[in-house]
Write a structure and sequence with these properties.
CATH architecture of the largest domain: 3-Layer(aba) Sandwich
CATH superfamily of the largest domain: Bacterial extracellular solute-binding protein, family 7
Largest sheet: 6 strands, mixed
Order of helices and strands: HEHEHEHEEHEHEHEHEEHHEHHH
Strand content: 15-25%
CATH class of the largest domain: Alpha Beta
Number of strands: 11
Structural class: alpha/beta
Number of helices: 13
CATH topology of the largest domain: D-Maltodextrin-Binding Protein, domain 2
Length: 351
């Protein structure tokens, strides 16, 4: 009799455990960054803290290092449900999120914190339809892309001529406008490409010098923030999966995502400073541009902005509408510059 009771208790416990486990909504979060990179660490915190807030209702699991989806497959993979949530940036799928690619233009973004706020302001005001197929959780930007080189310092446009530099998406257009040759190398392959001479440098944030150890190879970085652009990152969720979530879960995820976006933006600034220090520690140098030279760079990259406008007009948007977007972005840059200074937020460059 006792054995039957024990067996019955075991079966009931097993059934309850199986039911409880099945009741938990499990979400796969794909991230192409290596496990030790800030973005993987931050998204790990995002998953961990959100899991606690959702008290057993939802379990997010992060898959780093492209183990689930690579950066160029992220948007399609989330759309088709390979991953429920994905982190990537716009440049890997040029044209897919064409309106938001305004963040990749050389509009003079001076820091990640500023650019991240501008990106969110822009999205909230204009709600680009390119994202309609997704639930947007977070938008954030990399620190500002600057010229980094292995063999020689870039002090002028003349120094840019013929340089083979890593540049993807509209960032490749900036490299070309400045006189270089853009090569679309993924950041996971950046270090080896530099070592093998496939590329001579990159248009990337200072943070990559430490985050991807390229500061061991790069010797120079030009403080070209006057034509500052950034890589705009997104964390998006499969729309059907989002709709299937209970309203209280949606509310918790949305509110926490908004809160976490600010933490993410601050951390971008911090790691950019770390990258600058890593370069200098390894014997590298920061090259500053004169005011006159900076003006030449701004003029040289104007065609990139013009091409963006032509591209969007060809897709059905009105020229005046695109001009309005650009004016809005420039106004928000100035606003958030003031906020960054007022809040005394550390940044890589003095502006």
């Amino acid at each position: 009799m006792r054995r039957k009771v024990v067996l019955l208790v075991f079966v009931v416990s097993l059934l309850f455990s199986t039911y409880a486990s099945a009741d938990v909504i499990k979400l796969k979060f794909a991230n192409y960054f290596p496990p030790t990179h800030m973005n993987s660490v931050m998204m790990g915190k995002f998953c961990e803290e959100l899991n606690k807030k959702l008290t057993g209702k939802v379990e997010l699991t992060q898959y780093t290092g492209s183990t689930l989806l690579g950066p160029d497959k992220m948007a399609a993979g989330v759309l088709t449900g390979i991953a429920d949530i994905g982190l990537s940036n716009l440049s890997y799928t040029r044209g897919r999120f064409s309106v938001m690619e305004i963040m990749e233009l050389p509009l003079g973004f001076p820091s990640a914190w500023i650019a991240s706020h501008v990106a969110n302001d822009f999205y909230e005001k204009f709600k680009p339809k390119d994202f309609d197929a997704y639930q947007v959780l977070m938008l954030s930007t990399s620190p500002i892309n600057v010229i980094q080189t292995v063999g020689k310092p870039v002090k002028s446009l003349d120094d840019m001529k013929g340089l083979k530099l890593r540049g993807t998406g509209r960032l490749g257009d900036i490299v070309k406008a400045l006189g270089g040759t853009p090569i679309p190398v993924g950041t996971p392959d950046l270090y080896d490409s530099l070592k093998r001479g496939v590329i001579e440098g990159a248009l990337l944030p200072l943070e990559t010098l430490k985050g991807f150890k390229t500061g061991e190879v790069m010797k120079f970085a030009t403080a070209s923030w006057g034509v500052g652009s950034d890589y705009c990152f997104y964390v998006v969720m499969n729309k059907n999966k989002w709709k299937s979530l209970p309203p209280d879960v949606q509310k918790t995820i949305a509110e926490f995502s908004k809160e976490f976006t600010e933490r993410w933006a601050l951390e971008w600034n911090n790691i950019d400073i770390d990258g600058r220090q890593f370069l200098i520690k390894n014997g590298g140098q920061i090259v500053n541009l004169s005011s006159a030279e900076n003006a030449k760079w701004i003029k040289a990259t104007q065609p990139v902005i013009d091409d963006y406008k032509k591209d969007l007009v060809s897709k059905g948007y009105k020229a005046a509408e695109v001009d309005g977007w650009i004016s809005f972005v420039k106004e928000r840059i100035e606003y958030w510059k003031g906020q960054e200074k007022a809040k005394k937020i550390p940044t890589s460059f003095q502006y």
